Protein 1
Amino acid sequence: MSMSSRRARLVCAVTTAALVMLGIAHAAQTSSSPQAASAPRTSTPPPTPKGPSLGVAVSAAEIAAMDVSIGPDGAGLPPGSGTPKQGAEVYATKCLACHGPEGANGINDRLVGGQGTLTSAAPVKTIGSYWPYATTVFDYVRRAMPYPAPHSLSDPEAYAVTAYLLHLNGIIGADDVMDATSLPKVKMPNRGGFSSAIQPKR
Amino acid sequence: MPGTTGSGSSRTPLEFLEGMITPNSLHFERHHSGVPDIPPAEHRLVIHGLVRRPLTFDLETLTRYPLISRIQFIECSGNSTALYAPQPPQAGAGALHGLLSCAEWTGVPLGTLLDEVGVHRDGKWLLAEGADAAAMSRSIPMDKALDDVMIAIYQNGERLRPENGYPMRLVVPGWEGNTNVKWLRRLKITADPLMAKDETSKYTDLLPNGTALQFTFPMAVKSVITSPSGGLQMQGAGLYQISGIAWSSAGRIRRVEVSADGGKSWAPAALSAPVLPKALTRFRMAWRWNGGPAVLMSRAIDETGAIQPARDALLGTRGAAYRYHYHAIQSWAVAASGEVRNVYV
């Protein structure tokens, strides 16, 4: 054995010892060892993560408590329901000050009207003229509104406000009930008005 | 920026800075519902959805992961929107283009945590949600998440400041600033985008035919001369150093050309090393001002060969309702008096 290879082996041994002393586990090295590669493949267990794996398990109940996002297919919509009439009452006390009477002429975003203006020089983008999914209205009203007290509406109140805004925009009838079944079926006027600039790999 | 109280923005004063790094106290801010005050020990990031093992991570846990550091720009997709106006607004480089900053971000590659939770094959998107009052959320394609997205916990060597996402935020290199979700508390792996408010009602690009483009994430190649620039005053004829910044979501800046005669002739500027992908690149050029009227312009070319367009060319395809992604050539007119003004050429 030459001196240089002996020295290399020594350095290697010292380095390994130092890593052991520091308590550094190398999961990546373990999973790519010859033993692992030649093990019989009876099933395909999830691959061992390469990182430190310090994440803490979280229960389904904990996730449910914080998962407020609603998919365009209605996934995540809670129990409860609301009508435009009920929504008008909620709107009058909690929304009108910023969004104006009947969703227009307020100090903040206009919510109603504007249909037919998207090709004009001054398009008016509202829930009725622009938003492609009714589920997004419920999602945003519940998570972020009313502005001084976000996420303070009950689920029925959020359904009711959503129903009121859809009705003001002429999208649903005055007595239509919005709930987890009916809301995803609402056909928004501008539903076909969007195209995605990217197509993720499938 | 007008709007709901607490949902405003502040800009980086580009005309008073040099180099490529934005000091933390001058990093631009854009809030959709104020700045939350988050006790770090109580903050958790949960990753769930189409995963094998839903997990939570707190700040101290993340500091035990192998950290990486990268210098990246963040630009709001509404940056420079005032320049869509028919008449050139008179304001400084920072007021016009300052929803743009660049910092060294240190954090955990998102791919490490996604590997740990075990993403299902059909998990092609993830919803990133902040802990601000609006629970601001955006859907991001998995390809990008696995490419170069980071959960940042340090900015220019110090912990994130509250206004920039403390205790943790996403950094999504080169993409619309709002996708760099601050105060990150939740990542939900999904098959399709969630169609959140800020990817339907806002941050979509309305075209002249009335249809809109969605998920226009990358911020295109762009540059601006920061000195001399609007509102600054020349101190008489003679030698000056033209200085500016260039950037592109597509990677490195290959070249920046400068014109002092309104675009009739161009010459390459010196790029100041290091020239890093998806970072601000400082360019400089000596200029002897003869004391007469002049129009200064800069034009960036990135490593893919993409060239920053003239304003007319950019507006030509976009129509009157386009509000985001303005990246046309900026022109500054120097008057004989030494006054510098924003002009359209």
Protein 2
Amino acid sequence: MRYVRPLAVLLVVGLVTARSAAAQEQTVSSPAQSAPAPDQTGSAAVTAKDERRACDGCPPRRIGMSLLQVTGINVMYEIANLARGQVTAHISPKSWWENMQQGWVWDLDDFTVNQIGHPYQGNNYFNAGRANGLNFYESAAITAFGSATWEFFGETNHASLNDFINTTLGGITLGEMFHRAGWLIRNTEATGKPRLWSEIGATALDPITGLNRFVSGDASRVSAKPAEFVPSSVAGVASAGVLWRGSQSSAFTGPGDPFLEVDLYYGDTNTGRSREPYDAFWLRMRFGGGSAFSEARVRGRLFGRPIRKGALQFSVIQTYNYQNNDAYSTGSQAIDAAFGTTFKLSERTNFWVLGWGGLTVLGAVDSLPLGLTEKPEEEEPSAGQGVSEGPRFYDYGPGSDFGGLARLVRDGRDVALFFYVGRQIYSLDGVRANHFLQHARIDLLFPLRGPLGLGVSGEYFDRRSFYQDPAQTKQSYHYPQVRGYFTWRR
Amino acid sequence: MKTRGICVLLAWLIPASALAQDAQPSPSSQPAPQSQAAPGPSRLWIVAGGASATLRGHCQDCGQDFPFRHGSSVVANGGYRVSSRLDVGADVFWVKWHNESGHIYGTAINAVAQFRPWASKGFFVKGGAGMAFVRNFVRTLGSNPDDQKALSVVIGGGWEFKVKGRLGFQLFAMQHVGALGDLQTVNGSISNVTANFWSVGGAIVIR
């Protein structure tokens, strides 16, 4: 309880400061406020008077508020951890000083917490920047600020280097993806119930932007959608079906697992100059198929430019990866350089090829110490909930990745897809090893009627771990996977 | 000795930066652009300076505290001004310290982004990642001299003051971390070692 009071004081001070900052910003923009309501007179009045808005539908630019909201997000996570009874939430100036004196260390937390939880938390920081009118790179700096302050001041355990990287880079990737996906749903020219539901739907994807819009009144103000959030094209594919996993020794003896896979193609990554980061990205998420959440990939274009008079397309891509399958569990943050080209086979048929390679800033991969064949049962931590004492059965390290993608498209619909990615992770924390992970997949798709289609795919997962023990032990595991599914394309 | 070294370095850098400033073509010597618009500011971003550094090691499984050690460091940045608020480029951080056995050298080379939240103010924050190289780490601790590579991450901030033209000066505080993995010593291998370097210093800025 003795920690709750200072936190409550901090929260109250934060709210009061936010309120006074809002009041101050209202004073600054008083001419706009004194003007008639924009939805009565047209939005041009606001554009003319509120200079903090880059466009009519854009949020006002408020750097101080974004920093304050990032701190508020940290306070909310801290309160949630206190409510859950985590001993690491019992922070004090003493723990802050100890953390600053120790600096960055590796942590021993759960794989899902580190590879999904922290990037999601980082996405909140990022969108505190975006919701307050900051651009992509400014919001990236805000994300690093939020991540660093959380690591040093939000928990009693030492600041974690892997959390800082995952929260910052993962937060940027997921944050911009969710922010743009939210703007896809949001209909700023609608009124009444359709408008309300579009704002609620967008808030579910990007809560920080949504809450800011409801508080500021932008959620009900009629305006044009900001041009930067209108993609050149957008397509979504949902695939549902059953997959059968093989094993290293025998193929496809087990029962099938249902799965749902969602792909979002935002903008055109194949051609043209990029206007701003993430004006084109690809998202894939898979639920089921062996585990509740088995795959998440985001590939966001930071930079794109046609070269050789448009014969080739060069792109710099930021990626977030999470995969959980029988061969490996892995998560990583990477930056790739990619070259792509499109062959026009006929009036109706195109063949697009993309190849990429890059650096994995930080990757995680499950790993057992030599001599163990199964992960032991985890015991309750004796130091209390929230304190990770280890052992941790996955490794961290930098590395590299490379891959290729080929798409045969007829009448704007995918007919055949080939995807391959190889990833190397050099373990710097955990069992000392070089891990090499490969995934290849081929899909054949048949249109049925309207947006409906049918697909079959074959996949192959391969994992090789080269341990740096005196015996130079090598371990490998591989298995095939097939699936059949229905697709719905929009 | 340490202070004198930093002074010598700064004295060497100031004329160099002045030369770089002089080397910029004067507007009068250039043909006027067709649009008659004033030439835009340089896209170049150069920083060079020195700092006082403090180091502390950590290992995940040791269960012991490591002492703080102190040394001097040289810092250099070079890169490209993306906008009035953002610079991107490379950060080189070289540090020398010593323990009971002798001198140890560390060099971190990071890809960095430097961001100024307020374009009209000198305040900046920076962050990046790359590689670190530690020399003589093993030589001082073990029998097999070897260099050690590490994953490097840097965060920091400071304030930049404009002196004249493209010349400026900055005061900064940075934290570099090197994740070394295993450290070989005479007593065997120590697993999962990280080293944190805190530095406070000043540098000349050319932009």
